[in-house]
Amino acid sequence: MMSSSSKSSLLALLALLLTFSTTDAHVELGFYNETCPNAEAIVLEEMKMILSADPTLAPSLLRMHFQDCFVRGCDGSILLNSSANNLAEKDAPPNKSLRGFDAIDRIKAKLEETCPGIVSCTDILTIAARDAVFLTDGPFYDVPTGRRDGNMSEAADLPGNLPPPTATIDELKASFLQRNLTVKDLVVLSGTYLRLYNFSGKGDADPSLDKGYAEKLKRKCMHYDMETTLVKMDLKSPMKFDLGYYKLVSMGRGLFTSDEALLHDPDAKAYVERQAVAASPEEFFGDFAASMVRMGKLGALTHQKGEIRKKCAFVN
Ligand SMILES: *[C@@H]1O[C@H](CO)[C@@H](O)[C@H](O)[C@H]1NC(C)=O
Ligand SMILES: *[C@@H]1O[C@H](CO)[C@@H](O)[C@H](O)[C@H]1NC(C)=O
Ligand SMILES: *[C@@H]1O[C@H](CO)[C@@H](O)[C@H](O)[C@H]1NC(C)=O
Ligand SMILES: *[C@@H]1O[C@H](CO)[C@@H](O)[C@H](O)[C@H]1NC(C)=O
Ligand SMILES: *[C@@H]1O[C@H](CO)[C@@H](O)[C@H](O)[C@H]1NC(C)=O
Ligand SMILES: *[C@@H]1O[C@H](CO)[C@@H](O)[C@H](O)[C@H]1NC(C)=O
């Protein structure tokens, strides 16, 4: 006879295994090599134009990707609109805190012109988030692709899945460990979720943007030769992807409880303190890329699962 506690831990384990049987989904580098060879280049070109018009979308898109992956897995559920009888994730309270849905729609429309029905909205968001980092002076890293789009999005899924800004270190760790992500992933990605590019990323807290910045970006983009591959926009700006988050947290000036919470875990604290004084962001960039790739595999739908949406806001 099994004790009821070992029975329930067995059940919990089974539930965990079932939940994460898709974690090691077979996304791969260059999934669109044959079917839409310019897919990633098209996303990058669009992202340059999108960010030159509104650089504040860079952290928004990064957070959108994070939120998509944490709720129901990376399946584009965050992009779906509410319907008459369903409140979707994007409209969950605190609603309207994510921006940039139209940017994803715009990229999708461009890709549909070139390769109709091929590139999933989930992959577009994943690639756009990577480009948002790269175009604001962060690292460029290869992202595996081949995710397909899910068909459900429910506001009710948020509360149990997205750690709130008031989360304690234990809650944050649990949320990550539940997804087979480590404390290191937590400390590396927390800037992404909690405080983006040195601002909260809450819809109400967007930085007042340096007026000249958008103009500077625009000029830079006009000089940019569309044929050359990758050029960075190395401009001084609040939208710069750097170690600022760790500097603030180490000084005890995090914006949210969860930021401070990092200092209550010895490993997380050591990481924060090391990055806060690092001479170069190299270590963080490497770690960030690895954590993003791991996070980007959470619950991804591949092969026969899911669909390629025609429009990102609606199931086919
Ligand atoms: C796509 O091409 C890249 C670069 O040549 C290669 O590394 C990758 O493995 C290819 N992927 C697929 C699925 O063919
Ligand atoms: C879908 O949702 C987005 C963002 O919430 C909104 O801007 C857009 O108008 C919606 N589209 C339709 C057709 O309702
Ligand atoms: C936004 O959230 C509030 C609660 O915070 C809720 O009452 C309202 O219905 C939501 N709006 C939409 C459009 O989902
Ligand atoms: C949504 O997807 C699930 C899993 O792939 C599938 O079982 C279900 O039939 C789909 N629902 C609709 C309405 O397409
Ligand atoms: C969690 O990650 C480890 C190391 O990457 C891997 O060996 C293990 O199979 C993963 N477990 C689950 C449930 O995905
Ligand atoms: C972050 O923003 C705060 C004000 O919100 C500012 O005092 C601080 O210098 C900024 N830190 C970095 C590293 O940009």
Automatic annotation (TrEMBL):
Which amino acid positions bind Ca(2+) 1, per UniProt? 68, 71, 73, 75, 77, 89
**Listed EC numbers:** 1.11.1.7
Lineage top rank: taxon: Eukaryota
Q: Where is this site: Transition state stabilizer?
A: 63
Q: What Gene3D superfamilies does this protein's entry cite?
A: 1.10.520.10, Peroxidase, domain 2 (1.10.420.10)
Compartments annotated for it: namely: Secreted
Q: Which GO terms describe its biological process?
A: hydrogen peroxide catabolic process; response to oxidative stress
Q: Which GO terms describe its molecular function?
A: heme binding; lactoperoxidase activity; metal ion binding
Tell me yes or no: is Calcium among this UniProt entry's keywords: yes
Name the CDD domains for this protein.
Answer: secretory_peroxidase
Question: Which segments does the entry list as coiled coil?
Answer: none
Name the top EC class: oxidoreductase
One Pfam family, short name = peroxidase
Cellular component (GO) terms are: extracellular region
| Catalyzed reactions | 2 a phenolic donor + H2O2 = 2 a phenolic radical donor + 2 H2O
Q: Which residues form the Plant heme peroxidase family profile domain?
A: 26-316
Entry keyword set: Calcium, Disulfide bond, Glycoprotein, Heme, Hydrogen peroxide, Iron, Metal-binding, Oxidoreductase, Peroxidase, Pyrrolidone carboxylic acid, Secreted, Signal
- What residue range is the signal peptide? 1-25
Write out the similarity annotation: Belongs to the peroxidase family. Classical plant (class III) peroxidase subfamily.
Name of the molecule in the record: Peroxidase
- The record lists the organism as Canna indica (Indian-shot)
- Organism lineage string: Eukaryota, Viridiplantae, Streptophyta, Embryophyta, Tracheophyta
